[in-house]
Amino acid sequence: YNNKNFLNQIEKELRCQAEKVLNFHPVSHIDSHCHYHSIPSVFNLFLKVAKEYNVKFIRTQSEPFFIVPYKILNPKFPVNIAKHFLLNNLTRINKKNLENTTLDSNKSFIGALYSGYMDENSILQGLKHINTELTEIIFHPYLPKNLENTKRLNNYREFLITKTPLLKNKIKESGFELISFKNLTD
After folding, report:
1. I need a surface site. Which of 30, 62, 78, 138 has the fewest CB within 10 A?
2. pLDDT tens column, 137-153
3. pTM of the prediction?
């Protein structure tokens, strides 16, 4: 994470991606696959590029610890606890660097603890541990062409819950307003 050549390559790639996306529409926020932008040296590159391209928001991963009892027996849970711990600690470092910028970020995050097998209860339990503040909920949705041949059935379930009006109502009843980053940049 401190290799100058590697960081220069990452910065070049970020610029290429930003310019390519900006050819089609404005960039509302920055995040990354597998949260690799959470590595502090990479996060600082994201901050630099975001400022240059006038991006207003960047994802941070400050997730409360919460238990959904029937989910803790899933074999993914121990790995997700480690991911949760790592992301929260990296976010503490990154938020200090974020203070020196004009960028904003979500205050809370839901999605690492039950990554790969999120459901309505995971979301609602997580929201019970958050004050009504800007919270990003992430999913890994997937819409397969053929349900019988998919190995990503949990991701298909995550796709389905994003379409559930009942969940949207329960989130609103919890005191949260559903928005996208686009709402924040208008």
Report:
1. 78
2. 988 878 777 777 667 77
3. 0.87
